[in-house]
Amino acid sequence: MGAIQPKVSEPVSDELLLVQRAKGGDVGAFEELVRRYDRNVFRIAQHITQNREDAEDVVQDAFLKAYNNLAQFQGQSKFYTWLVRIAVNEALMKLRRRRPERTISLDEEVKTEDDSVPREVADWSPNPEQQYTQAELRDILDRTIHGLPATFRTVFVLRDVEGLSTEETAEALDLSVPAVKSRLLRARLQLRERLNKYFQKRDRVNGSQSKPGSGDGTR
Amino acid sequence: MKCSEFLHELTDYLDGVIDAGTKAELDEHLAWCHNCYVVCDTTKKTIEIYRDSKLYELPEDLETKLRSAIATRCKSHKKTGPEGSAH
Questions:
Q1: Which of A9, A72, B9, B17 is deepest in the core (most CB within 10 A)?
Q2: Can you give the pTM of this predicted structure?
């Protein structure tokens, strides 16, 4: 089975120049950075806060904070990773304000009881997402990911949806690389388990199935 | 290789960041363990479905509103000077 094709990020060669110009007071250059990343920041914020209005606030607050603190951006990491770190912190603050009864921390100890061991193993239809309309699919994906703890959700979104590398995700979340990997594995397995009921093959006969994609060179 | 060992390596396997020797062992396990094959295949689909989904796309009108609000706030900040400065 082949590995997942990594999401190729856009070239950022002119990005440092834009940051330099923005540092020098060129709001237009900063607006260009906003245009590049506002969709990503919105997605991340919405995933973490699970609330549209909060996500809108997070987008504004994160960019304003980035603008106000540009002098502190030294260019050791990508601007985007730095921005994501700010946005995640803003989003977590919103979440804490909304749910003060529960302390939310990304580095909280994950329960030792292994809730990620696959319990249900069933083949999925070849193109499971095509069984649903776009709106139904969005609803399924939305409800499924919302059921994950914030820490798993955030790692999954940065790594698998936004395409940050493991190291960039670790940097943005202030976690170690092994911590990112362990959360990512559990997030992926839990999402898979929860999506089973929507995507598994509905067989009329309860017979043995041929392996999906068998003969594709897995051996 | 046991299934639990396979699962432990699943993330690196899917991300294609393992050495050739470990990959060969995992491929060998997948060749005979149907359950792990299905878990691996459906986990990969899970990731692809989320990656390709249009979940939380920023609508154009909202994007315009947010950009304009950010620009206004940045410009007003510029007039008043950086936070914490003596100006």
A1: B9
A2: 0.84
